[in-house]
Amino acid sequence: MGQIHLYLPHFLVEEAMVDFSVLIGGKAGFGIDKSGAIIGRLLNRLGHRVFIYRDYPSIVRGGHTFSIIRAAENRIATHQDKVDFIIALNQETFDRHKERLKEKCFLIYDLGQVKTNFDLSCGIGIDLGKILKEEGAGEIMRNTCMIGALVKALGLNFDILQDVFKKEFTKDFDLNIKVAKRGFDETKEVIKLESLPQESLALISGNQAVALGLIKAGLNAYISYPMTPTSPILHYLAEVADDFSLDVLHPESEIAVILMALGFSYSGKRAAVGTSGGGFCLMTEGFSFSAMAELPVVIVLGQRLGPSTGLPTYSAQTELNFALSAGQGEFTRFIVAPGDAEEAYYWSAVSLNMSWKYQIPAIILTDKNLGESIFNFDMNTVGEIKEEKGILWDGKTPYKRYAFSENGISPLGFVPAKDAVIKINSYEHDESGITTEDPELSRLMQDKRLKKKKFLIEDLEALEMVKVYGNKDAEISLVCWGSNKGVCVEVAQKMGLRLICPLVLEPFPVKQFYAAVSGTKRLIAVECNATAQLAGLLKGHGINADNLILKYDGRPFSLEELEKNIREVLI
Fold first, then answer.
1. What is the mean pLDDT of residues 36-57?
2. CA pair distance 237, 215, nearest whole angstrom
């Protein structure tokens, strides 16, 4: 038996905990991410609603990484600073996070790695080194042992862990079970976590939701040069490419990415690309080419703190202004900023549809907090999605790629097409795609491209582009965008505030936003950037934020932090 130090906890909770958090931490390469996912799946199977926040440095091995797994009775999409359980695989985890422990808390730690400097009345120290040696297991299984201990501490049956492991481990299943059972046997039940009387929901990341939404709208090809936080989309789509007949490609540069995507578009294949701010910088000429050549393309733009490389594995909302103004010239574009997994799925599909219907570039603004967090996903709350086919050439009339029309949309034809020359051009051109510098024709062509916006706006009015949460009659309103939705929803509900979340940022839904903000006497903008980019956009439409709450250290707002900030503003 491995040596253990067991401290009887000073709380034995008889009733089920309805909102609690587990933090697991260690070095990068310790399998913290997978461990967090396993814990989340365990809790999810019990009917709890789950949210997983991930924090990791931009190195492959070493450095501190941790996940916070939060479970509650109702849907959640944010983490809390204070946690009920810490699983510490090394000293740094304990030292960094011990202040997070609530008064009623529980700690599971590696006895050989962690030395506590105060009296622990609620902890179990397990000699992981000795257990792994006795079982002939590798270092990576240290977290497996700890998860087994957590299962026992939560008062759960070991069988549930076995079922989860069957789906998580394709190799070394038996050894993982043995190691987890050692951890299970060498601790004691400290709370009794009961199942909740509700069906479990799927757990997916925001990046997976984006990928699935694109597939739903008919994605044919995905091209990306890996950049956090959108790299997981590339990896996920590569795994499922055969299932959905996808072309998934990793070219040599971001310039190659955007041009390859436009090549797919030219041939009639629906293409999307993934990148971050630095990669999108390289794509901007191709982005303008898309507008001039009227080649549909969707860009998943994962924001992170800059300038330049900045904090490559952390989160921010710094690219709204960039997305609004990227590319030379003036042209119609479509920009959305989903706030959770369901919205990421739905609006990614809408983006691909609108891009192809109007033959324009579209941008899906995400960030690490949205893309790499894990959410429950409820398909029943997602609106209906139909694939927009676009206007196609009838094959009879002489083909003109850029034929004038009432709404600015020209019929699409794709190579190879019989009796048609399909010419695209980044230069100004006539209806057939032939280069021109004629002043009158140049003006008419620019009008043609820009008039699409009017019809796009009319099309979008049928959709709910601005959502309102909390107390919809409150005179104090929060406004946020993107991944701040989760934390703002909870705080608004708790404090009796109104919350307004615009989902479409270009063309901005002016009518819907004015309706949502009606009756507000004080508007507080919450953003993860230093320059209040959404507030600036609102000001351009005649709406002024009275207060700004800005965070720009690469980390998202926690529940406690945002509530504190709002209370300070309201004093």
1. 96
2. 9
